Every structure is written in C-alpha cells, then in structure tokens.
Amino acid sequence: MTRAARSPGWSRAWIAAVPALWLAALFLAPFAIVAKLSLSSPATAQPPYTPVFDLFAGLERLTADLSALTLANFTTVFTDVLYVDALLSSLRLAGVATLVLLLIGYPAAMALSRLPERWKPFGLALVILPFWTSFLIRIYAWIGILRPEGYVNGVLRWLGLIDEPILFLNTDFAIVLGLVYAYLPFMVLPLFAAVDRLDPSLAEAAADLGCPPWKTFWLVTLPLSLPGAAAGALLVFIPSLGEIIVPDLLGGSDTLMIGRTLWSEFFSNRDWPLASALAILLLMVLLPPIILWRRLEARRWSTAP
Amino acid sequence: MEHGAMSGTPPSSRRWDAAILTLLFSFLYVPILIVVVFSFNDSRLVTVWAGFSTRWYGSLLSNRPLLDAALISLQIGLLSALIATVLGTWAAIVLTRLGPFRGRAVLGAMVYAPLVMPEIITGLSLLLLFVAIGLDRGFWTITLAHATFSMCFVTVLVQARLVTLDRSLEEAAQDLGCSPSAAFRQVTLPLISTSVAAGFLLALTLSLDDLVVASFVSGPGATTLPMRIYGQARLGVTPEINAICSVLIGLVTLAVLAASLLTKRDFAARRER
Predict the structure, then answer these.
(1) What is the pLDDT of residues A237-257, one digit of tens each?
(2) Looking at beta carbons, which residues of chain B come within 8 Å of A107?
(3) Residues of B in contact with A133 (CB under 8 A)
C-alpha cells in the first residue's frame, strides 16, 4: 500500500482535484447557470436575460436581483399547450421506438447468441461498427431513401405498385425509423449479453418436453433476460427523448419533440430563460429512467459471474 | 458446450437465424452503402445512376469552406481528445486506486452524469457558462466542451480496465522499492495503454461526430465539419455530401480496423504472459 493510502480524508483529495475541478467548472457550474436562468426573465439585451448577477455590485443589488427571479417560465411551460404537447409527443415517439427496438432486438440477439462461438465476436463487431460512423451521416442516409423522389419510392414505382410517391419523409414514421436505426446497437448489445448467458440446455429441455419455440421464449428466455431488456430499453429511451437531429432531418415541420422545441426557443426566438426552463423540465423527466438504469447496472455487475 | 449448442439447434431454426441476421445487417449497412455507391454517380440527380465518376471527390478538393471546416474539426478533435485522455485517465486512476477520500462520490457522479446527459442540455449549459464569464465563442470553447464530455467516456473505458487489473503487480513493484509514481509509470501505465489509446480514439470520434454541442458553443469563424454537412443536408441530398460522407466512412473504417488489430495484438500479448 502507498503512503497516501494510509491517511484517509483530505490528504488524498488533492490528487483528485484536477479532474474534479475541471468537471465542477465545466459541468456543475454550467448547470447551476441553467437553473438560475430558468428563473430569470427574457430581455432585449446582451446577454438576453435579466437579472444578470454582479457579485461585486453590493448586497443591495444582490437582494434586488434575487427578488427578480420568477417562476413564470415554468408556469408557461406547464400551461402552454405547445410545450406540453412537445413533451408528450417526445415520450410517445421515444416509447414507440423503444418497443420496436425490443421487437427487433430479441430475434437479433438470439440469432447472434446461436452463432458458433468463434463467429460471435465478429457478429457483435458488425453490430457495433455503424455506431462509430457519424450519427449525422447515418441519419442523412435515410433522407435519400425516404424522400418522395428517393430510392424506396423509386423501387415501388418501378414495380408498378404506386403512381404517386408515398410520403415517408417528414412523418412520425420517419422519426421512429431514424431512432430505431440510430440506437439499434444500444438495444442489441445488452440483450445479447443477457441471452448469451443463458444455459442453452434450458431451452433444449423445454423443447424436449414438447414446448413450442414461442412458448419456450415466453416462459424461459424472456423472464430470464428481462434485466438485459430493461437495460437496453432505458439505454435507447433516454437519448431518444432528448433527440434533436433525427426529428430535425427526418421529421415534418409540425412534429414537435422537446429537444427541437428547446432548440428553436433558444436560436429562433432567443428566449434563453424559457429554453433553460425546458432543459430543466427535460432533465426532470429523464431523471427517473436514469436513476433506474444506474440501479440496474449496479445490480447487473454485482450478480455477473 | 459449443457443439452442444449447435447440435441442439434444428436446421430449420438455423435457417431462421441466418435470415434474421441477413435482415439485421442489411438494415444496418444498406443505407450507408447507398451513400457510398451514389457518391460515385456521374449525375447530379442523386437517385438516377448515370455511370461511374469520381468528379464529386474532385469538387470536394476545391470546396474551400468544406476543407476549412474539416481542418477545424480535425484540430479540435485531436486537441480535445488529448485533453480528454489525460483528464479521463487521471480521473479513472483517482476513482480506482486512491481509495476512499472526501468527495469521491461527487467525482464519481460527475463522471457518469455527462454520459447520460442529453447533448442539447450539455450544449445549452456550456454556452450559458461561456456567455456568463465572457469567453469569446469559437475554436477554444468547442475544444473545452468536447474535452469535457469526452473525458467521461475515457474514464469509463480506462476504469473498466483498471478494475480487472491485478493489483499485486503494482504492489510488488512498490515492495521492490519503486516509488508509487515509478510503479505507476513502469507497471500500471503500460498495462492500461491499450485502453488509454482506445479512449483517445473514442474521444476523437465523439468530437468529430458532435453537431449539437458544437452548434451551441461555436462562434463566427469556427464552423466544424458536422455543422457544415448539416447545413447542406437540411437543403437536400447532393452527390457532394455523399462524397464527403463516404470519405469520413472510409476513414472511420480504417481507424476501427487499426484499433481492432491493436487490441488483438494486445490480447495475444496478454495471453503469452
């Protein structure tokens, strides 16, 4: 053991200071500013909000600034149909995408786990590889496929199935498809980890006893792999909810998602306080799934063989 | 075990598996392949094939704004990845090797929080910080922002390696008279070097990939490549974007291949030991 290890407490904390201070300055402090700004009022000034705290302006000014803080932004966020709708529609789209991913993820993970042992790393690598490619490029690729004069409509027309192009792009369908495509590895990997750990003799025993495959899945595989499914579901739901690139490139102009609403409040309307209030709201909504995911991870690691 | 699993699978279900995997990998790769194939299309109409051509790659070379953006992205990427690797590895060592200290839980939470934080909140909060302290937005603010969220990914990667590392190696080095810092440099660092390198690559990729955070914290004169591509992609699909995307896909593929060779060598070396 090192010398430092023998004296607990503050003496060791200074080694941690550099990364800790960095994160405090560039993660915690910005966050406090968002919280403060969500209680401020918009102003046509630079910066476009009020009050601007000046720590050197004396106590009187400080109390005046403090009393200028208001909950008005949150009242707006919760009473204006626009923002409530944006949140609900985000929850709906992210939820549908998560469900679709579960439906795709299970057969995919099970097929991968039935690969011969030496092929498994290769199969998994193929699932992960697209994740390393730019997110933007992967979403951009779907514009060309889905748009009215795109490849899908081209093939359908060539087959003589349609005369008029079907509108895929700028619909909720396109958003869900984009989310599913972008986050597929996040679902398949934890599911694979859960399914692959199962003893194949369990499924064999069920089959020997006359259980049809779907029933084996329902009674054996699914219950035993539920923690993996939950991890995967949270891992795709959390980023989907705050997603902005997918709805912006694939969604219609009337599709509301909370991330996009925040973006336009900030950049188009220049209402920084309202955008901050939306950020706080998004975070509040995300907090329960994030905590759940952390718990799940902690349990998964402690029970792993 | 391996054979048991295989012989227990009836041929019909193996055919199912093959079908499922074919569908899965087609879904994952066909969209990307289409982008690459049509970047070689001679026609400006992206959907109609008019013969093989590399002219869009030629026109990339004369697209000054795009090249500038690529250069800025690369500079920010390398610099932020370097900072992220140092700080991230530092945090990982602190969290796994320092034992209990004041504020350990806070540091652990601060390392994990940015991983799950929506980019839009990270971007907004950092911009508000830079405005509040009056920092001019541009190259440096993007670099700081990228270094901050990337370092957390590096920490997680390196931490995972440090946890599995045999502590007795470091302890033996110190028992044999190495100072803690010498033991770290001569024993620990070589053992975690692959994870650190992987962390650097991940940080670089994250930085090159980032659009949302950069859009918030950038200023005039600092347009990154994703920002440039995004601006054009919103207007529609063009063969030129297909070409720049294909170049990036090619580079990523090369990097991943190199990284997997690196880890394979490391695995082999570890097995020999």
Answers:
(1) 999 999 999 998 998 777 789
(2) 20
(3) 32, 248-249, 252
Please list every residue in chain B whose beta carbon sits closer than 8 Å to the beta carbon of residue A20: 91, 103, 106-107, 110
Rounded CA-CA distance B245/B226 in Å is 10
Task: Give the minimum alpha-carbon distance from B181 to chain A in angstroms, rounded to a whole number.
Answer: 10
- Give me the interface pTM, i.e. the ipTM: 0.85
Tokens (6 digits) for A52:
């601007």
Spell out the residues 6+ positions from residue A108 whose beta carbon is closer than 8 angstroms to its own.
A127, A188, A191, B20, B21, B24
Positions of CATH 1.10.3720.10 in chain A: 80-303
Residue of A38, A50, A136 best to disrupt the B interface, most CBs of B under 10 A: A136
Could you say which residues from 214 to 253 on chain A have a Cβ atom under 8 Å away from some Cβ of chain B? 238-239, 241-245, 248-249
**pLDDT tens readout for residues A185-201:** 999 999 999 999 888 88
- Domains (ranges, CATH) in chain B? 2-55 (no CATH), 64-272 (1.10.3720.10)
When pLDDT is averaged across residues B239-248 and rounded to a whole number, the result is 89
Contacts of A13 in chain B (CB under 8 A): 101-103
B272 — pLDDT class (breaks 50, 70, 90): low
pLDDT class of B267 with cuts at 50, 70, 90? low
Q: Hey, are the CB atoms on B111 and A132 less than 8 Å from each other?
A: no
Are the beta carbons of A211 and B14 closer than 8 angstroms? no
Q: pLDDT of B186-240, one tens digit each?
A: 888 888 988 899 899 889 989 999 999 999 999 887 899 999 999 888 887 788 8
Report the top-level CATH class of A80-303. mainly alpha
